[in-house]
Design a protein that fits this description.
It contains two helices and three strands. It is of the alpha+beta class. α1 runs antiparallel to α2. The radius of gyration is 20 Å and the shape is rod-shaped. The two termini are about 20 Å apart.
């Protein structure tokens, strides 16, 4: 399980303070680079959190008959974001109980 984003943000602030304490003469560009490195971690955590929230709401209407589709199985895929950070996204394969249509909702 990943670190919640607000806890991660607190950790990032502590890490940056520690980094700056060891680099008191850092240039603005060096500070920017240190911040950007940590932003990648926050971006990944926030996207993973949102993807998980979207997965909980995976009961789309069937495109064929309009009935509510039900989850049958799950799969995980890795999505590569900016900065080459990988985020694991779980998706459910859903099936229509009325007509049998199946699909992977986007995500």
């Amino acid at each position: 399980m990943s670190t919640p984003p607000n806890e991660l943000m607190d950790q990032v602030r502590r890490d940056l303070a520690a980094w700056h304490a060891t680099h008191p003469r850092a240039t603005f560009a060096e500070m920017e680079s240190a911040v950007e490195e940590r932003i990648r971690l926050l971006r990944a955590a926030l996207l993973q959190e949102r993807a998980g929230a979207a997965r909980q709401e995976e009961h789309p209407a069937c495109p064929s008959c309009g009935a509510t589709m039900l989850p049958r199985s799950q799969s995980t895929r890795s999505v590569i974001m900016q900065g080459e950070e990988a985020v694991g996204v779980e998706r459910s394969y859903v099936v229509c109980p009325a007509c049998g249509t199946g699909l992977f909702p986007p995500g």
